[in-house]
Amino acid sequence: MKSNLKGASFKDCILDHVDFSSSELSGVNMDNLTFNGATFNHSGLKGTSFRNAVFRHVTFNTEVKKTIFDGAKMDKATYALLKSFKANLQHVQIIK
User: Fold this and answer.
1) Are 2 and 22 within 8 A, CB to CB?
2) Quick one: CA dihedral 68, 48, 67, 84, positive or negative?
């Protein structure tokens, strides 16, 4: 997609199969959103907050060490992928 989405608002959105590849999302608040089949490849996620978000079948191929996932819920595959990129998943719940 290659978009600069800094300052964008996604309040109350359910994001089904959205491709955020190559998009700048650093510092964007994505708390309490639901992501189904979304893609984050080479996306800027430094300081992006996904607090209490829900992830199902989501793909990440980007730096996530400084991304916030506190209280998020995600399927095992998304969890494993994020863990392999060294995301802090200390306060994440795995769902079916």
Assistant:
1) yes
2) positive
Averaged over 81-93, what is the pLDDT? 97
Q: In the beta sheet, which residues pair with residue 58?
A: none
- CA-nearest of 84, 85, 81, 78 to 93 is 78
Query: Nearest-5° angle of CA 89, CA 90, CA 94?
Result: 65
> What are the two backbone dihedrals, phi and then psi, of residue 23, each rounded to the nearest 5 degrees?
-95, 145
The residue to which tokens 């802090």 are assigned: 88
pLDDT, tens digit (0-9, with 9 covering 90-100), for 1-41: 579 998 899 988 889 999 999 999 999 999 999 999 999 99
d(CA 66, CA 49): 9
CA–CA dist 58, 70 (Å, integer): 17
pLDDT score of 60 more than 90? yes
How far is 95 from 57, CA to CA, in rounded Å? 11
